[in-house]
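User: Could you check the structure of this?
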Amino acid sequence: MIKVLIIEDEIPARKKIKRLLEELSTPNQVLAEIDTVDTAISFLKNNTVDLIFSDIELLDGNAFDTNGIAYLLKPFSKERFQKAWDKFLLLRNTEDVMIERIAKLMGQNFSTKAYKKRFTIRLHQGIYFLDTEKITFFEASDGVLFAYDILGKKHVLSESTLKEIEEQLEPSDFFRINRSELICKKYVEKIERYNKNSLAVKLQGHQEYLKTSQTMTAAFRSWIED
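Assistant: Sure, the predicted structure tokens are below.
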């Protein structure tokens, strides 16, 4: 049942709208017939309607609507009225479908993004794979990308940029501490202060400390402590 409010100060116009509503195949109900802006405001504070037929100029002010569907210029025809009604139904149905879809999505358990589980290592002898969970950190050096495993072994990767690798990894597990190094949280063994705005990070299987850039230190602190 579509709930309708008529805001019109001309009685003949109100009667015509009611008659045309009664001739529609879609069930509807006129909740009220109002002839002033003040009365309309009071009514809408306590009532919910689906559609309003409103004159633009009333005796006590302007009732121009901000979400108008169509203008029915007086004297309007039945065909023009039907066209406006059909437009309302189309918009209403579209909105209902969208609400239904959103509600359905909200009720679902969203699947998490599929992050990369292993990297392909290509050698002259053939191809082998390195599991992501065994990588302690990634390094970009002179245009070449490397992955270091838990034994400290260095592997050449086929990816073109460190950014490309970063986008394939779980953000809670890997963090880019500077422009050229991307580390894994679970392999962080020790953190020391390097200077005023940088930290030195010791990773399992790697003797040298890695340094956070000044711009990434604060974000790194937040990430490592999460």
